[in-house]
Amino acid sequence: MRIEEHPILKFNRGKEIKFIFNGQELCGYEGESIAAALHAAGVMVLGESLFKHRPRGFYCAIGNCSSCLMVVNGEPNVRTCITDLEEGMVVEIQQGKGSIL
Ligand code: FES
């Protein structure tokens, strides 16, 4: 779900771009964060807690809480709420702490 109109705020939406989330092609817009594009596409679970494996999603949306850590283009621990979406990005739910090969 996206806010299309707002009585106070103006949205300067960029062009539509495609990205891959867990093997599925989704659409977002230039200038929005990965997490915002996922949320708009109906994806509410961005990861899971380390020990109890409870679902985690959008929380602070300003890069402070780490609730939105995901694997982006093979790189783990990316804060998707403050990372801009790019054409062709591959975004995956991260399992555990994430590891670098
Ligand atoms: S939602 Fe808090 S760091 Fe991204």
Derived from helix and strand composition plus strand pairing, the structural class reads: mainly beta
Instruction: Say which molecules are bound, naming each kind only once.
Output: FE2/S2 (inorganic) cluster
Euclidean distance between termini CA atoms: 36 Å
- Please indicate the percent range of residues in DSSP E strands (runs of 2 or more): 25-35%
Low-confidence stretches: none
Number of helical stretches of at least 4 residues: 1
Gross geometry: globular
The side-by-side strand order for the widest beta sheet comes to: 2-1-7-5-6
Q: Tell me about the largest β-sheet.
A: 5 strands, mixed
Helix amount: under 10%
Mean pLDDT, all residues: 93
Rg over CA atoms: 14 Å
The overall strand count is: 7
**What string, H for helix and E for strand, traces the elements in order?**
EEHEEEEE
Explain this structure.
The protein has 101 residues and is mostly beta strands. The protein is 7% helix and 29% strand. The chain contains 1 helix and 7 strands; from the N terminus they run E-E-H-E-E-E-E-E. The protein has a 5-stranded mixed sheet, with helices on one face. Strand 5 and strand 6 form a beta hairpin. The longest helix has 7 residues. The radius of gyration is 14 Å and the shape is globular. The termini are far apart. Bound molecules: FE2/S2 (inorganic) cluster. The site of FE2/S2 (inorganic) cluster has 12 residues, from loops.
